[in-house]
Write a structure and sequence with these properties.
about 220 residues, alpha+beta, 4-stranded mixed sheet, two-stranded antiparallel sheet, 9 helices, about 10% strand
């Protein structure tokens, strides 16, 4: 039976982007350790770090000043250095607006049924952190998702789907009810959880431990 990995994260969380790449490295270690095992089943779940941001977004500078104060930009150098070995070329200077990410999460959720969820998730994160695109803009969201493999009409329909909007909100409420307050948050086989962008070796150990626990029951 394939290992299940559920990842709760936000597309504008830099550590979530780092965590995604570290998970990918852990999956390669997993394949090396267990070459005959089926590929793990991965699902991304929504979490808005800033759900109160208006749908049209706000200027990035205002967001940094309000949330982090004078120390806000000092963390960028650390993130740039953390991203380099993972192939993430963080370009924080390109980010002009801090978006509300509900629309992005709706597209990621819709992409799950089409089998392109990881690609859409990656594309949205890259668009924000590397290209500095405005994820509050509906047309930009649709273009990013369609270029990542989601049918354009499906993407347009997803952003207008109130039932999907409520479903995504429900997923977020479920995560918070579980006690999730920081992301990324990884859940392996619905048994073992790991919080934060941990090193690949830590994530691999969690995968193996979750499988061991599942086999024992």
């Amino acid at each position: 039976m394939a290992l299940s990995i559920d990842i709760i994260s936000d597309v504008v969380c830099p550590w979530c982007f780092i965590g995604k790449r570290r998970l990918e490295a852990a999956l390669e270690l997993y394949r090396q350790r267990l070459p005959e095992a089926p590929a793990p089943e991965i699902a991304y779940h929504p979490f808005e770090l800033n759900p109160d941001i208006p749908r049209q977004g706000i200027p990035r500078a205002d967001y940094i000043a309000k949330k982090f104060g004078a120390r806000g930009y000092s963390a960028h150098d650390r993130l740039v250095q953390a991203g380099k070995p993972l192939g993430i070329a963080f370009a924080f200077d390109k980010i002009g607006r801090q978006p509300n990410t509900l629309g992005a999460h709706m597209l990621i959720e819709r992409a799950r049924s089409s089998g392109v969820q990881p690609a859409v998730k990656e594309a949205l994160m890259k668009a924000f952190f590397v290209d500095g695109l405005d994820l509050a803009d509906a047309e930009t969201l649709v273009r990013i998702a369609s270029e990542a493999g989601l049918d354009r009409k499906d993407a347009e329909a997803a952003l207008a789907d109130e039932a999907l909007r409520h479903a995504v909100a429900g997923e977020e409420e479920k995560a918070r009810a579980m006690g999730v307050s920081g992301v990324p948050f990884f859940i392996f086989n619905n048994r073992l959880s790991v919080e934060g962008a941990q090193p690949p070796e830590v994530l691999l150990e969690a995968m193996l431990e979750a499988e061991k626990e599942s086999a024992a029951t």
